[in-house]
Write a structure and sequence with these properties.
It is built from one helix and six strands, in the order E-E-E-E-E-E-H. The longest helix has 26 residues, at 95-120. 15% of the residues are buried. The protein starts with 9 loop residues before the first strand and ends with a helix. The chain is globular and about 45 Å long. The strands form two sheets. It has a four-stranded antiparallel β-sheet, with helices on one face. A two-stranded antiparallel ribbon has the order 1-2. It has one domain. Strand 4 and strand 5 (67-74) form a beta hairpin. With 121 residues, it is an alpha+beta fold.
């Protein structure tokens, strides 16, 4: 099956900032400022998904071969996906936003453990 791919810039649906296309051979799939994405791809770059809802960043994970990945959850259909952090000198991911996301994920994780310990007593 042949597919058409797009590597284009866009206006972020969450924060409204302009986002440039990547020039390193990869596809831009999230805003480097607020880390939100749109549920537009079935396969990276194909723009064939009909959902089109915002995908909010929920975590950061490390993959041994791909590096740090931002985990997104679709606000429309609930699908989760991972996207590589953008390695771009012109418009790379905002490290303060990445660190804030990591802190939020740790806080949620710790709160879950605290709640579980309380219910066991």
């Amino acid at each position: 099956m042949s597919r058409t791919t797009e590597n284009t810039g866009f206006t972020c649906g969450h924060c409204g900032r302009e986002v440039a296309a990547l020039v390193n051979g990869s596809y831009r799939n999230h805003c480097p400022h607020c880390l939100h994405s749109l549920h537009v791809d079935i396969v990276p770059g194909d723009r064939l998904n009909d959902c089109r809802a915002l995908m909010r960043p929920v975590a950061v994970e490390h993959h041994s071969a791909k590096g740090y990945m931002i985990v997104h959850q679709c606000t429309g259909c609930g699908t989760r996906g991972r996207n590589r952090m953008a390695d771009d000198l012109y418009q790379g991911d905002d490290l303060d936003a990445v660190l804030a996301l990591m802190r939020q994920a740790v806080s949620r994780h710790e709160a879950g453990h605290t709640n579980r310990r309380r219910t066991r007593v």
